[in-house]
Amino acid sequence: MEFSGKVALVTGGANGIGVGVARKLASSGAAVVVADVDEAGGAAVATEVGGLFVACDVRDPSASTAAVAACVSSFGRLDVVVLNAGVATGFGLGDDFDVERYRSVMGVNLDGVVFGIHAALPELVKSGGQVVVTASMAGLMAMPLDPLYGANKAAVVALVRALGPVLGADGVAVNAVCPGFADTAIIAGFKAFLETAGMPVLSVDDVVEAYLAVLRSGETGQCWYVQAGRPSEPFRFPTPPGPRAADGGRVILHDPSQEG
Predict the structure, then answer these.
(1) Looking at residue 33, which CATH number applies to its domain?
(2) Could you read off the pLDDT of 106-120 as tens digits, one per residue?
(3) Catalytic residue among 102, 149, 211, 225
């Protein structure tokens, strides 16, 4: 995919992976709209890449709507949406559980994806654009270090997989990038533990390159893992067991509309 003349919206664009993606898209010719709750940081990134900053709390659906509107009013279109805003959960279901914190992190990590796609979809249908969502390896495997984070990332993975064929019918691609432990603020609290345990930590640059590869892939409905020391590619989900008929035979779904 060529990015010259394209318009991209990057949520969570003030820090970490979002900054890297914004820079890479801008250097590849795209006009970039940086969206974040960090107004000072986001504005600085937007200035650096020659783009536009919009304050955006992705937990609020009206904020996503406003961010999309800013893209269209400033640049006339929207082609690429990178839904990257995310936070670590950092607590479990024991004595440390707090309902408001739970709702807040689910609001950022899951609702922000739902609201972002909903807001952007009309413009992406017009442009034949695409969405890339930041999920996580925690959405593909058990995450005992942060089980609620794993839960919301697994929900994002399931959403992207289901939306692939649905949005594909309208000419819109949607994929997820699932990094392992990347060198961002999310792992700050246990980065030393990972290093002591010998767990490789991904550089932000390596993760950003995976985003660009996904945008250029022509794929949809895929969840691309990013792990240190190996190329990124779509995760091949095992096929779950299907139902059996009363006589023990396989059940084949029949669509009458496909009859000759």
Answers:
(1) 3.40.50.720
(2) 999 999 999 999 999
(3) 149
